[in-house]
Amino acid sequence: MNVGVIGAGTIGAGLVRRLVTTTFVSEVTWVNRTLEKKVEPEIIDLQQGLAFSPSCRRVIGRPADSRGAEALRRADIVVLTAGRGVRPGGTRGDLLVENARVVEGYVRLLADYPGVLVVVTNPVDMMARTAARARGVPRQRTIGLGTIVETARLRASLASRVSPVRAAREVWAYAVGTHDDLFVPVPIDHLGPGGTEQGISLQIMIESARTEVIEAARRVKASGGDGTLFPIIEGIVSVIDAVVHDTRTILTVSVHDPATDDDLFYSVPCRIGRDGAGERIVPDMPSVHDGLDRCRERLRSDIETLRAQAVP
Amino acid sequence: MNVGVIGAGTIGAGLVRRLVTTTFVSEVTWVNRTLEKKVEPEIIDLQQGLAFSPSCRRVIGRPADSRGAEALRRADIVVLTAGRGVRPGGTRGDLLVENARVVEGYVRLLADYPGVLVVVTNPVDMMARTAARARGVPRQRTIGLGTIVETARLRASLASRVSPVRAAREVWAYAVGTHDDLFVPVPIDHLGPGGTEQGISLQIMIESARTEVIEAARRVKASGGDGTLFPIIEGIVSVIDAVVHDTRTILTVSVHDPATDDDLFYSVPCRIGRDGAGERIVPDMPSVHDGLDRCRERLRSDIETLRAQAVP
Amino acid sequence: MNVGVIGAGTIGAGLVRRLVTTTFVSEVTWVNRTLEKKVEPEIIDLQQGLAFSPSCRRVIGRPADSRGAEALRRADIVVLTAGRGVRPGGTRGDLLVENARVVEGYVRLLADYPGVLVVVTNPVDMMARTAARARGVPRQRTIGLGTIVETARLRASLASRVSPVRAAREVWAYAVGTHDDLFVPVPIDHLGPGGTEQGISLQIMIESARTEVIEAARRVKASGGDGTLFPIIEGIVSVIDAVVHDTRTILTVSVHDPATDDDLFYSVPCRIGRDGAGERIVPDMPSVHDGLDRCRERLRSDIETLRAQAVP
Amino acid sequence: MNVGVIGAGTIGAGLVRRLVTTTFVSEVTWVNRTLEKKVEPEIIDLQQGLAFSPSCRRVIGRPADSRGAEALRRADIVVLTAGRGVRPGGTRGDLLVENARVVEGYVRLLADYPGVLVVVTNPVDMMARTAARARGVPRQRTIGLGTIVETARLRASLASRVSPVRAAREVWAYAVGTHDDLFVPVPIDHLGPGGTEQGISLQIMIESARTEVIEAARRVKASGGDGTLFPIIEGIVSVIDAVVHDTRTILTVSVHDPATDDDLFYSVPCRIGRDGAGERIVPDMPSVHDGLDRCRERLRSDIETLRAQAVP
Question: Do C208 and C197 touch, CB atoms closer than 8 A?
């Protein structure tokens, strides 16, 4: 499989490096504004180790012009990571207008690319919407990474709270909504119908895990590291795997809500396959309905901000 | 499987990150002199994504004291990456005395650890020897990463030279000897008995690939990147896989030459399994014999250097 | 990893064939009373395709005598599949006395083998108990396959009943108790706190899935096939993976209940790792307590039957 | 990925069972003349274990009529295993006319299916040719399994003859030509330029391995087993993996020789990817040229036989 990656920041570069170790990626097409600084040195390093790669035969770098566009046309899926990251002390919202223009530029480059586009650029729900509206293909072919990271963090947090502790992959829960503090945790009561374990009620545990998830990114930053990386990259790999193998796995990614007339994108559990987003599975719970209402409100206010700046 | 990793430089940290994506590592025990700067932020990031890990349930960080020693005792294999890296303009040889002391310190920490120790610290052949002599277990339980990287680069280089080009994993060749410019390329004539392809003799192709391999690390550095990383990490993963699953795969790693009375370590194709280094398979070719003679000479001169500094 | 397999019936032979396709088994040691009829032809076929195997380098066959015993001593884990299968129209209980003697014979052959023994022979809970008592190692080193198959069937059944249907691996539930009609389904309410979906209450859905699971083996037989095979073999592979990689995955296998003074073995969710059975995680639900009481009663009656036949 | 399998003999059924354990097959579409006897019981067994499958969400069975045709249209690749097997004492050639009609029937069913068709039906080189000519797509979209099995056997045989013995996957050689006794072994001299090991010349070793490969199928049969199965199934999985992931791996499969005006199909190392057969890499050795001449002669005589029976 040929995977296209746009952008060479920490996430773009980390993703390319990770793709080469999978068992299904045979080629990586890496596009960035400039190649000299990051893309070329990385590719040289990767090429020298391809004898160890299970399936990859080459990694190519292309500039963000017609050469990049032509190379991406052969990709089975494209991941957009370009755009500015959150500045110290800033929020994802600060990036809204600036990154919307970056996203639009790359969508023009992709032109009539018919495959699935995974948007990672923040603020991700709005950027997925911007990309989807600018593309000439059905909305479902554009997917934002959404709350897949919050879902992973929620599971990790719950895993450390149950007794006995278990591996995060043995705890099932979803975070839905927008990729910010408005996300809504949805427990899957694996603790038994009592909903309690050792006297702690599930609801309290979930609330407390929710707070921990909100703190998580801050903890990573505060710890002096490069910011959240691992859950994002593995989340992207999960989406790629679901799309190229058409597994129709249920993932909490940012997808088009067809019930909205303003093309809102936000995360609900959704079946992901070759055509992109399939059935949306919205949990029928009051807390979810209320939480999603707040998310949609936030998104509509962002749309106003974009409009005020003449970004469609 | 519990894999112990000592050191938190680019290679140590990259290795920990990679191990979490394998299908067989259930726990990583990460030991470093300090935990605050690199180990703890990395672990926080990794933990938040463990829901995506196929087999890993936790990554723990421990300081390089009795707590680290105790944690490493439970590891199925330990990889030593600590030590200073090559300085700009310097060579691996410059690190000889300084890193020998680092290695000795960690071997004391490991005490009577009975498992396989993989040494990555440079100059790797000498460091594997130092570690092996300081440990109280059979020499074969210590393996240096050796020329596994040169082998990968040689295969990549040859793959790009044959016609039609092929994937590096479809070209078979070995680099033997020491992990420096004295390594010897051993062709496995996959071009057919004629030994030529499109008029280029195999010997010329190999010589030219040899030069390219020597230039490879320089190209990576010159390109402005972080230095060679991918082939090293994937090489380590190959060794770990061979040891913990007892596959007895043939790898060109730095192993003890029992025919030398001064405990030389250098790379030859060697069967790697649970007990560490098994049968050494030395190609019976004049170019290999001559090349290995030069490697052994170099190593003996390094031994003199160490002795002059009272390092055993 | 060296996996020992005892028995060459449909399950033993199917297991050996499957192990060769994994990424972690490097050697299979296959022991059977006779080698000519099944073991040798199978090994010839497998050997001719080992070039395709990711990690296996050989499959060896040994008779059930001192040669087999010696070979099994090198195995990292042993799976016991020998014994008579259920006769048409018969039940697993009919095999109790006969297979207990088979199991005892093989445990004598294994002598002081210290590793984990996975018992697949039916009736599996009783056979795990018989094996564990005859071995000279802690009870936790013996694991019966238990209701791992009922758990798989329960998940498959529920997956087809929810709306929209999902993949069985995206539905979480456990079957606990004995490997017969007394097993107890434990829902993990993935349908949301309401416990209903499309008007069907979870309890009704679970009851109906329970019936379907009981019918499942019958359906397989009635369909004219070879009987249940795939869920059993994949269940065994899951247990082997958890043990050799020490993943401590939670599986519903038949393990020793230390609270009983007559060494009962039956399935509860249990953490499986290198030492065999770890923490048992018994769901604190009335339906589970009642169901397990009935299972223990059945097992005690089987113990009486064995005693009456002078089987310990 | 959706893999279509036609036929429910030992190979068809074994293939379906194996596909469910891969990490990339999400759906299997199984077509056979009758479903009751084999397909349905197998599917019931497989479905009950799908909770263990890494990526498969369903296996569906369809009859060999318009329903089968419609289901196969959604497959990413189709494998044709239908047709009569070699009778005891018979040869693959005996099946020529009979199986050509079976193949033609299924090609009509596939109609304008645009994807890659892998032909396993024997005599495989002629059946690949028959299928390719009957299909309305470029010849390269049809691939016969060819000598992939002889290649595996040759590597296994050589692996047991070198000293020290090694794993079959660590020995590189190809068998080219037709899938019968006329195949030609092509050594890749992994023994070093001397071409000898322990006094045995490579040429003698290869000749002797060649004989062993010819005997191999006979040994399997004579041993009382079901005939060759494992190398065939793993060979098919390799081809599927190469096609659906577009790895362009070099495999010795039966492909169209564009230099012949009668559409001959036989095996040479060939790059396999999404479009089917890519570059053919014919070893430029006298023994190969002579051997392939004999193979082409045999195929032309088979074409005469078919013509005499009015099969195109």
Answer: no
- Residue D262's Cβ-side half-sphere holds a number of Cα atoms within 13 Å equal to 15
Q: Which of residues 113-142 of C touch B (CB under 8 A)?
A: none
Cβ–Cβ gap C190/A188 under 8 Å: yes
Q: Is the peptide bond before D123 cis (omega within 30 degrees of 0)?
A: yes
Whether residues A49 and B231 touch (CB distance < 8 A) is answered with: yes
- Is the Cβ of A34 closer than 8 Å to some Cβ of chain B? no
Question: With contact defined as beta carbons under 8 Å apart, do C114 and C107 qualify?
Answer: no
- Which of A246, A248, A272, A279 would you mutate first to test chain D, the one with the most D CBs within 10 A? A246
Q: What is the 3-state secondary structure (H, E, C) of chain A?
A: CEEEEECCCHHHHHHHHHHCCCCCCCEEEEEECCCCCCHHHHHHHHHCCHHHCCCCCEEEEEECCHHHHHHHCCCCEEEECCCCCCCCCCCHHHHHHHHHHHHHHHHHHHCCCCCEEEECCCCHHHHHHHHHHHCCCCHHHEEECCCHHHHHHHHHHHHHHCCCCCCHHHCCEEEEECCCCCCEEEECECCCCCCEECCEEHHHHHHHHHHHHHHHHHHHHHCCCCCCCHHHHHHHHHHHHHHHCCCCEEEEEEEECCCCCCCCEEEEEEEEECCEEEEECCCCCHHHHHHHHHHHHHHHHHHHHHHHCCCC
Q: CB-CB: which of B26, B245, B248 is closest to C24?
A: B245
* pLDDT digit string, tens, across residues A31-48: 999 999 999 999 999 999
Is residue D93 within 8 angstroms of chain B, CB to CB? Answer: no
Directed axis angle between helix C39-47 and helix D202-222, to 10°?
140
- In a structure prediction context, what are the per-residue pLDDT tens digits for chain B, which is 312 residues long? 999 999 999 999 999 999 999 999 999 999 999 999 999 999 999 999 999 999 999 999 999 999 999 999 999 999 999 999 887 777 777 899 999 999 999 999 999 899 999 999 999 999 999 999 999 999 999 999 999 999 999 999 888 887 778 889 988 888 999 999 999 988 764 433 333 344 455 677 777 788 888 887 777 777 766 788 999 999 999 999 999 999 999 999 999 999 999 999 999 999 999 999 999 988 777 888 999 999 999 999 999 999 998 776
Q: Which of D16, D72, D71 is nearest to D41 (CA)?
A: D16
All residues of chain D having their beta carbon less than 8 Å from the beta carbon of residue C219 are 44
- C window 207-266, beta carbon within 8 A of B: 245-248
Task: Please give the DSSP secondary-structure letter assigned to residue B30.
Answer: E
Active site amino acids of D: 179
